[in-house]
Amino acid sequence: MCDALEGRFLQAGSVAELRAVCRQAEAEGAGAVFLRDGALGDAAVLMAGLVTGPELLLGVCAVLEGEAHRHPTLLAREMTTLDHLCGGRSVLVFAPGGDGLREALLLCRAMWREGIAASRGPIYPVPGAVNRPGPPGPASPRLALDLTDGSAAAPDLVELVDFFLMPDARPGACQVQPA
Hints:
With about 180 residues, the chain is α/β, with parallel strands linked by helices. Helix content is about 30%, strand content about 25%.
């Protein structure tokens, strides 16, 4: 991907509505859709239900802090599975800031590239998480930073991500720009 494309944050009251909103986003020219955990449940699982649909990039917005927190190695394994289901179109999205973001990005990359990740922390210690099978392609899953709130990416994070989600004037929309 060389040029920016339109992305949409999907919201719906039911899984059937979610599928319809996804199809509508593609019909309106979106090249990527994104889900957050919410009332319908886990974003990665819900995104798997959209895989057979449009040929969009499929993004899952991860939470590193709070109630929906998952260890980055678990997120990496879930995204590997999603990536197999969607043929290499998955994107794991993090919000900038917070302790441990760089560490989380490095752990995800290690899981995808080497198939194993080990870290002494300080935020996400792991003695050796294994990711088998690995992703279906050398360039996936992808990583992105959600900058739609106007925040900026720290310079040391820019080299670790593939995309930035940038603000868009339309509600629920964003611009997906290559890093």
